[in-house]
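We treat protein structure as text, and this decision shapes the records that our systems exchange. Below, we set out a record of this kind in full and without editing:

***
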Amino acid sequence: MLILISPQLWQAYDQWFNFQLPASCLILGGLFLFVGLIPLLYVRNKITWSLFYSLLGICIIFGIFCGIKSSNKEVKSYFVQNHYITPQTRTYSVQLFFKKDYDPFEIAQYRYVVDLDNPSRLTDIYAKRKVTQKVDFLGRDDYYVYVKLNKAVMKFSTSDCQKISGNTAYFVGYRFDMRNKNFEKAGFINLPYNMRDKILVPANEWNKKVSDKYKQNYDHPGLVANWIPDSVK
């Protein structure tokens, strides 16, 4: 069963695990050391023993509370997904006592990168769905296939292709729709484009030779008809 973390809960986890929890540990640890332990090492009387045991009890209770709070499935899912956040999917990362903003130029570059793995892991943020798009197969040479979409000619390695029956070629890829628009308030980025994965080529046209005019006038197109066809802009 898919566990969905709300935008509000995600932000609460950001604050708790990166700011509130470590700050509480530092404060409580300092109190235990300087008010509970060190005085007891120098003077052992009823007051120092009482302070020591009181702070020790507070530390144990706090530890149990943190253990319970951190053991649910939502927290585990949050930590797993945090490993896959990049400038493609969020404008900043949250670290221990620190919020790191990604460089705007880096974010802009990632906007046109085909990275299916990382957003696929962010299952609470994005709903992944398969999309297909008809393209015109122009032929191939020994290393590349050539297709056209909206008058833009593109070439790809033959390893990007899969032979199919029929007479129509397709882009096959994925779209990542944000599950809840409020995630944008938490810095997550809406991914508006389709990311190409494979090119499906009719088997009966596989040996079609591409015209020299396409090979000689090829221009890397970038974004085409709401598709990111290549791994870089």
